[in-house]
Each structure stands twice: as structure tokens, then as C-alpha cells.
Amino acid sequence: MKSFRRRINNVNLNRFRSLFQIGAFLILVYGGYYLGLELGRGLPIMTCLYNHHLYGSGGCFFGYFQRLLTLPWPFYLTTPWGKKNLIMFLVFLMWFLFFNKAWCGYMCPLGTIQDWISKLRQILRVRYSSYTARQHTILKTIKYFLLVCSLLAPMAIFNSFFGLPKLPIVWECPFCEICPGRKIILLFIGELSEWHINFVCTDTIVLTSLGIWFTALFLIGGFFKKRFFCLFCPMNALHHLFTRLAFLKLYKDGSKCTRCGNCYRVCDAEILEVADDVESRYIVNDRCSMCFKCVAACPEEDCLKVTFLGFPIFNSTEEGFIRRQNIMLGYPPKKRMACINKFKKKK
Question: Could you report the per-residue pLDDT of 158-197, keeping only the tens digit for each?
């Protein structure tokens, strides 16, 4: 058991995560058509519901949830449609409780595509940008604003807010109309029909134009900033409301932290608190995607720890840190072991 734990703690996380993301992407985008998989409509990730009808093995909860909100107030709990809404939410919560925000870091197709864009930037040796704390606060506000508007707009189709006029039916899935996943994910199955502006009415013109603008922002922003779209993703905001209830957690032992800054330097979301906060034990905030790069980059024994139902599954260790650093430097296996043994003797 001890040897098994040691192997996990020494794992090449970047390689494992890349392979896991590729596998998850193939299953989610093509698994329904080629493998006959059906994971349901309550997945806590941006996997397009339009692809779910064609090739995908599962649907984005956020898209279906918007549609289910298009009911008059009295029908939410008294009709099969309203009860279906509640069941859908419970399915979403079940998936989320098991894996927490690791859905973002390991399984979300849009997150994976952003990581591929970042790798292209690295190959081209283009520097990525960084944001100030104030800019992160603004993006955080946008994320929650999109979440609230995306849920209120479908309700306003059959319900009036404060005497305001009801919205037309084209607002039943407002975020799906502007979500870059609707266009980008469908490209991977050769579907180009979503790349257009719908001139049926003013509302469709506005929504489909915003969709093209958001898609361009996703591609351009993702090239210059790691996980750019995640910074204002409403699903990310929805996750944060339930993150403390989840079984998978990321903890920090502040007494072992030397504030070396390694965790902050590898963090795609530039979460400064993971390095500076030595008081809080649970360190997952609304920008964290639980990719666990911080754990892999930490040189302090058991300073950062990933647990499932309280049982540790991936810890920061000195040996694991050295091994991963040597792999990054391209050292052969013998030289890696020599470095580890030399370090142990110094200790």
C-alpha cells in the first residue's frame, strides 16, 4: 500500500492529465455515436447539448436546465415537467459531489480545448498575459452576472418580473446561444451550421451575433491567457455554490508552507491565495479548476493534499517534486534516481 501511494505521489501529473483529457474529450464528444454511451443530461461541464443529440455521450446540465425553467411559477413543482427539473438538478449535484471542480480541470471539453490552445502558444513561444487582482474581480462579476441572467431569462418567458413584459421564446436557452461550445465543439464533428447570424428577428440577431463574438473572444483570449473562458464561465460560478459539499477536496497545511511560490507560478488561474494563505485549510475558490498542478509543484512534504471522503489520494512530496522537475528537464531515468538519492543524503 505504501509503495502504491508513493507511485501515485510521484506520478508525472502533466502527462496523466493530458492523456485523461484526451480520453474524456473523445468519450464526451463522440461516445454516444460510436460507443453507445449515455451519461445523461446533468453533466457539470460545458459539453454542448446540440452535440448530445448527434454524437455526444452526455449533455451539459446548464443548457437543459435553462429549458426546464421556461414554466409558469405554479407549474415548477406540480407538473411532470417541473419535477423533471428537480431530478435534473439532483443528477447534476450527484455528478458534481463525486468529482467537485475536477470536472473543469480534467473533463470539460471547452477546458481541454483551451489547454490545447495554450500548448500551441507555447510551441510558438508567445508569452501569455497575467491579470491584476482588480481584473480578476471584474471577471468574477461577469461570471455571476451571466449565471443569474441565464437562469432568469428563461423564467421571464412565461412569468413577469416586476410587471415587465415577458420575453419571446427565443430566450429559452440564452447562454446556449452565446456559448462558444455550441460552435467549437460541433466543429469536431464537422458541423458548421451554427456559424451564422440568425436574421429571423431582432432577438435572434442579437443572440447569434453575441455567440460569434464570444467564440472569437474564446479563441483569441485563450491564446494569450490560460483558461481564459473559465474566468467568466457561469458553470464555474454554479460549481462554486456547492464545492464545499463535494467528496473530492484540496487541502493545505499552512504550517508546512514556506511560501516558495511554486504553486502560484504553475496555476493557470493565477490564484495567489494558494501560495499566500497559510490560515485557510480548504483552498478551492471560484477560479480553481482542481487540476492539482499546485500539488505536483509543491516541494514540501504533505503541504498540499487531495482527499476523497477524507482519504488522501495525492500528496505533495519532496521526492515527487524532484522527480517531476527532472522529467521537465529531460533527465533520463538513471540521472533522475541519482538526483533523488543525492537529495535524500543531504536531508
Answer: 888 877 788 888 898 899 999 999 999 999 999 888 888 9
Contact by Cβ (8 Å): 133, 283: no
Q: Residue ranges of the domains in the chain?
A: 22-240, 248-346
CB 117 within 8 A of CB 221: no
Give the mean model confidence (pLDDT) for residues 326-334.
59
Residue 332's pLDDT band, with cuts at 50, 70 and 90, is: low
Fold of 248-346: Alpha-Beta Plaits (3.30.70)
pTM of the model: 0.88
Listed as own residue / partner, the contacts of 264-271 with beta carbons closer than 8 Å and 24 or more positions apart are 264/294, 265/297, 266/293, 266/294, 266/296, 266/297, 267/293, 267/294, 268/118, 268/226, 268/227, 268/293, 269/226, 269/227, 269/230, 269/231, 270/130, 270/131, 270/136
Identify the residue whose cell numbers are 493530458: 18
